[in-house]
Amino acid sequence: MIKTYHRPKTLEEALSLLTEPDAIPLGGGTLVNTPAFEDRTVAVVDLQDLGLDQIQSVGHTLEIGATVSLQRLLDESGLPPGLLQAIRLEAPLNLRNQATAAGTLVAADGRSTFTAALLALDAKVTVISDQSSVISLGDFLPLRPENLRGKLITKIELPANVKFAFEAVSRTPADKPIVCAALCQWPGGRTRLALGGWGKSPLLAMDGLDPTGLDSAARNAFHEAADDFASAAYRMDVAATLAKRCLAQITNE
Q1: How far apart are CA 172 and CA 128, in angstroms?
Q2: What is the pTM of this model?
Q3: In the chain, which ranges are continuous DSSP H helix?
Q4: How far apart are CA 25 and CA 243, in angstroms?
Q5: Please, which residues bridge with residue 58 across strands?
Q6: pLDDT tens digit string along 97-147?
Q7: CA atoms within 13 A on the CB side of 49
């Protein structure tokens, strides 16, 4: 239940409000409407007047404002096809119109396709409090949400000069995946593989200069990935197959 509504005009005001007990940032509002908040009384800090809804290219980097919606990323940003596919699988249209880029990362579990894709891309998250810090998404994910009190995400940075591929397997075409693989390769050969579909957050399976052994890395990352949806053995096999498909896409570009 929302007990207090605030709509700050500056980042300083927003940060001050977010230090209050039970205060949470409000971007698209999808998180507040989940069952996790049914028994909580919260003070919301609406971010819509803070100018955090911009998308811009700076050199070889794409900067995505924290409150940019997932649907706007599909419509305006010119992202690679694999990343667009990951965004479509993240949520249906109505939720994509509400859900923000930062909010999706904060709320993500292991089946978040958007988060898996950004993990492969080695996305950087800018977090401000009394000072500003830039954190890799891989370091950011374990900090959620307790260590974000009194802090605010302002933008997410993605590399724009890379090759990227995404593959997923699910029960239905519109369902969240049982296994997904996202692969990114830089001009210098650096290759990152992230896997989703299981656990508390997507997993980084590989980050190195040589993609040799990609399928083995995928298998090793999911050796304990059993739940009600699939066995670990199934996920290991599928992850290895999807990783090889991603590499084939990138190689043939």
Answers
A1: 39
A2: 0.93
A3: 11-18, 70-76, 81-90, 93-98, 101-107, 113-120, 137-140, 214-221, 232-252
A4: 36
A5: 61
A6: 999 999 999 999 999 999 999 999 999 999 998 888 999 999 999 988 667
A7: 10
